[in-house]
Protein 1
Amino acid sequence: MTVTASDTALRAPSAGRRAKVPRGALQGERRRLYLPMLLPALIAYLVFFVLPSLFGVVLSFAEWSGLGTELSWVGFSNYVSMAGSELFRASFVQTLILTLVVGLALFLIAGASMIVLRTARGSAFIRAAVFLPFMISPIAVGLAVSFLFNPDGLINTVLGALGLSELRQPWLAPELIFNVIMAGVVWSAAGFYVVLVMSAVDGIPPSYYEVARIEGASELQQFRYVTLPLTRDMLAIAASLWAIAGIKTFEIVIAFVGTAGTPPPEARTLAVEQYLRVTGGREGGLAQLGEAAAIGIVMTVITAVLIVLSRRIQRRERLELA
Amino acid sequence: MIRAGLALIRALIWAWVLFNVGMVVWVLLNSVKSSREIFDNPAGLPATWMWENFATAWSDSGLGAAAINSVVLTLVSVALIMALSIPAAYAVARLGGRSSGPVTTFFAVGMSIPFQAFAVPMVLIGAGLSRFMIDWVTGVWDTRITVTLFYVVLSLPFSIFVLIGYFRSLPGDVEEAAALDGASPFRTFRQIMVPLAKPGITTVAVLNALSLWNETVIVLMLVPDQSAQTLNVALLNFYSNMQYTSNWGGLFAGVVIVVLPMIATYLWFGRRIVNGMTQGIGK
């Protein structure tokens, strides 16, 4: 396919012929193509995504159980009642804890990988293997991890076999389940962030490290004075990507309980809490669409705040690497 | 001291690699064990290889129908996404004037809005749409069409944003040369620029296919009918029935059915998927 294109390039006319072409006419023809090509996507995006999202903001000021039921405007009362609701507060705090704790773990893992992976043997294979869980459906990840931590699961069996029976835990009990979920999220996401920051590390010219080595910098100093300053922008991008992803954590929690049960309040994130309100819970309760919409707005605000905060990591001037 | 620390990190990373490989092997082995053996012999090879786990998962637990739903929804959605986003991205990258900057930003904003801000309006539009179609237009409606609609619009921001980058990176004189040879702007797009952008287009299509294959929450919210649900949701239903069926071997066979196409895609496209996910974002 590329052959066609390069053939055309080979037949590209000389500068002399180029001068004769009526550029204005050509530009005009191209301009006329702009809207017909852009509009289908733009209209679909506007009508079915942007406007509905704005409608979601409006809905968060209403009380409604869906089409065919009565809608009443309630002002800020969805937000007020949320602030007073124990379930909402728990899911709010858990979502923040998950985003921050898992975020910190991802940062440490990515940082450690940046120190050793640049020069490690088998680096490409390592990256491919650690990236793998990120590709896999979070439902499958959640099922596998929850089974691993099952009371009769592999973790407890192995602990028993090693003679560490006192370390055996009811991992999926309400007190511990959220920690297990966070471990599952770390496992499924870490590889992506390692590969992401390593793509920035690969962009650093090797000569920088050579100079640092000649100057007598240790591997840690090379990390501190070469790698870290030159990958700050990517770390900022990674942080905001994680903020966007972490706040939305949903599937893995649901995978721990299946569709029949309801996750215990100790394990709910905001997205789970919203899902239960959209569907009216699994017990056939009424949907609370206004409250669900308000949760969506709260999540958008948290995401925006976290994105702004992670942008602060970014350096102000743009770096051009040789 | 530092040496030991670095060696420790290296060892931990290799342990992580081994753990990932081990998890894949463990799931594969569990999928061919009897449910008893999964608990009694969690780490060893199966005494009898229960290939029928796949048969029971496929037919008795409805994963077969769900797999077909997943395949059709993914393929149709990706085709529509590409049909909409390739021309739009080309227009913004190559044909637009002053408006192309703001339009790019407009699409980019969609990437950072959490899905949950959109969830309630989506459910309402879904309900309204099917009622409208049933009452006024076709008389019947399939919620899978609604799912396709939202799969497409929710994937547009990412797809268009990344494709704009690809089209911008192509050399401009190729277009000029084609025009001088008498190709109309649309023909230049179709016969020159799209083939040139093919690596980028393939990457975006594969990435969309991956994320839609793994998608769960939209189907959970929009499709109440079990026979119309996708693999991930069917797997959740399967898991919920576990207390009655105790067919753990079948559940792991189901996990394999969901995961294997992704691992195959990963092995097939490998670096391109990784680069597309990481480098496209960094720009």
Protein 2
Amino acid sequence: MNASERQQRLEERVLAPLTGFSQTWFIWTGCLIALSVLGFIAYAYQVRDGLAVTGMGDDVIWGVYISNFVFFSGLSMAGTFISAILRLTGAEWRRPLTRFSELTTVAALSMCALMPAIDMGRPDRLWHLLVYGRLESPLLWDILVIPTYLAASLIYLFLFLIPDSALLRDRTGVRVSGARHRLYSIFGVRWRGLPEQRRRLELGGTIMMLMIIPLGVATHSVVSWIFGLTFRAGWNSTIFAPYFAVGALYSGTAMLITVMFIFRRVYHLEEYLTEKHFQYLAILLAAFGIIYLYFTFAEYLTVTYKLEGGEDLLLGELFFGRYAPLVWFGFFGGQLLPVVIAAIPKTRTIPLLVTVSVLANIGMWIKRFVIVVPSLSLPLMPYAWGVYTPTAAEIFITIASFAGFALLITIFAKLFPIISIWEMTEGWEEEHSAAEVPPAMPPAQLAPQG
Amino acid sequence: MKSRRLALASLAILLAFTVIAGVHPLATPAVAQEATKITVKVTDSGLDPETIEVEQGKLVEITFIWDHKAYPNEEHIMVLEGYNVESDKIDAQHKEATIKIVANKPGTFTFKCDLECDLHDFLQNGVLKVKTGSGGGGAALTKTKISIEPAAISIKDGKVTVNASLLDDKDQPIPKGDITFFINQSFAGRSGLVEIGEERTGPVGQARFVYEPTLTGTLKLTAKFEGMGIYDASELAVDIPASRAFQAEFGESVLPASGHSQELVELKDWAPAALISLIALIWAAFIFILYQAWRVSRVGDGGPGGDASA
Amino acid sequence: METERTSPQPAGKSPRQPLSRRRLLGGIGAAAALGATGVIPLANHVSAEPEVKASASTGPKRQWAMVIDLRKCEGCTTIDKAPQCVEACNAEHFVPPGQEWLQVFEVEGPGGHPHFLPRLCMQCENAPCTKVCPVGATYHNEEGIVLINHDRCIGCRMCMAACPYGVRRFNWGEPENPPGAALANYSPEYPLPHRKGTVEKCMLCAHRAKDGKIPACASGCPMFAISLADMTEDVATNGKDVFKFSRFLADNSAYRLKEDLGTKPRVWYIPGHGQEYGHHVDDNLIPKEPRSWQEQGMTLDKLEEKHKAEEHPQTEGAK
């Protein structure tokens, strides 16, 4: 089977879900939209009555919103990061993974960027950040870095989408759907697969790959510094930036495994997303997980050994007190178990891997929660511990954010191929480099352009 | 040292009150009075005797005699609380020291060694009991006065130096007298005498006080002597010119040294600019890349540039 | 006696009285006038520069500080009342119910010896809160007081996370304002009306300090335990006595809360040196719950009367 035949086969498989809407799709998307709308209603209540509708108070000033913020920023880390690193190192097995990795990043980062705005007491004054922004504030670093990273991720996603959009533009033609055709025309920016076009795309892509890795690290660092630059016990730590970055890679990789599994199942992509891909991602998951465990150990050893100031109270509460079930579940279920399962070749099977990936992400969300909330509930002065229980509004908004995350991925997957066709083809072309390969898109197939 | 000063100051106020209240209307010169002489030995095991009794109104002389056997290096300065008086130092060389008081206040007063070391406080302390009644006393306090000549006030580098002399009624200097200095100050709707320092007179009865003014203008400086032993209280107010040398800015106040190191301050100046430049650079790269992608469309259009490159 | 001291005010500015009748009426008049044209009166906008530039004004600037004499504080348990400082603060600022800008804690000193500790904003020189504010809404004024510009605050609560003393409070919902507060002339030095979704805290009664008055808590304290100090003039008063600030601190082993954090607080505590203070460990002294301004029946008119009564302070000092 030569490259063009394989491309033909891939196109059939990958482009099939783009056409037609199944009942299941409508139900799924309808549910997501409904949940998002519920979240909007909850947010409308919050805007009307203020943050009083949340469970936050003068002691525990941040709750699940900020936990979500950190969690989503973590999810966003792995996608482009892994895609960029694998592309730069020329790992062949990346080819079917890149598209939905980047998509996961964009979707997670969009939700992540929303969270601080939802958490604000005065969302009507968001523009103050632009007018009065102080660069000395760690929060403004977030305001600078997260949109930059989001823009970078979008551009990165867009760049490698150009050839596929062009392909779709040519395949759909005006007669299928005018709107869609126009969309693909815009995203395809008159791509014809010419060498000059390829060169330019490669140049842009390489610059983006080089920029997106430090930007990803910067994002997680600045997120961690919201906490790390305060005096609070549990936050006042120098390793927070790398700790958060590694945690982000870990949870992001776990989310990639989950997303890959779902697409493989729903879109029947077993041929392309093979067991091998799960195995490779599992190795990455295990590696990041081990580094994360090492950081966890280093973080807690140094504070547990010294038991400085309020740290002893905090650790007591974390390890043996109110938060102990969460902490130990997060540790064993969310960190240790996934690492063990992913590290042992025998247990590295798809169902087990997906289970521990979901577990890892639940664990990581819990980990974010027990970083944010207990430190805040620790009394700074001799008063009682702060109490925090999320209210319905917070829970609805949190659910809505997850629904929004899924919805973004769903909508994108409806519009664009979830596996990068041109990248796969490129790989096959390289495989069959001996043979004379015609250009991917002969000029004859070009749709007439105005 | 601090505690002694505070004790003296607080007791001085008590004494001043007593004096002002006029306990002794029938005062006769102290010299005319036969002094009640008492000797107290300072020994290894404490004071001997530990309790002495005198009658109110008597002129009392207590002589402390150094009498250590086992501890040849011991040294003491004896103080009598409540009468604000302190002896010379006694040790192996100078074995005797005498304090004189006019026992005008009835009550029980502790005398003890004031050197803060070892067990002095516990061992070397005794009690003076001043009994009321007989009225046979009538010894009066010696009048004193504080004098601050205009020449005794000098200003250098914004600091005001005042030489106050403490003299008795025969213009003889009184050494070891504590002079407290006040200025009149008003703040937040309240005004009053604000204690700004305390100095002890030297052998020639002079106390040198240095004041760093926090105000500008003519300040009223009050010097107070609270009385001591056989000496009566006295006070004097003079005007001193003052100009505040120090100009406080935020974070640079007279009190605690504060503010950041210069390097950090400078870092604060350029760091935001660097950060903004970095972000701007990144966004410039974004625009460049998007431009590249847009240029893609120009390439195949058969324009002169496109053909040339292809 | 003539202590010539240049006014702490910048030349040409009269001392502000944020709530004088004239201002209130002026406000109403202006509101009426503007109501016709449909323009909303703009609140005072102060310069919310986080960094204060050295100004070459004529006189020395006031640098406000505070001393709290723990030897005197009994949490008002001995007079069987709620802490009067807190109540005075609530009444002065119409502190939204549920908040306390000043709190009295029972603290264990060395050896488990209990005493009371009034805790207000420390007005740190190296303030963690002003550093982290993303919009410069909280800042130091030239007199060293940490203020909040409620017109600018976006309610991110980063400052609350940063404050190591937990003094900052947040208006989670719509705060209850006294009637007429909407017309009060807002300034960060006297933030009225309170606004939803913004951070609140003690600002050392900057508005009163300007008028030469000690803070409401200090004037409310029946024990004269709280003193206002000016570090420039090196003088302090508790509303009764005037004393030299530095001398008082040095004489009485003053300390600051969490000094090791390097925040350089401007509030000093006096434990004394060896004097007995606090209470016996077996005495179960629990300060009563302070009443909010509503429970005290405070109104703007009453506050104004109170201010008027304070206009004529006794000038008799310690003499």
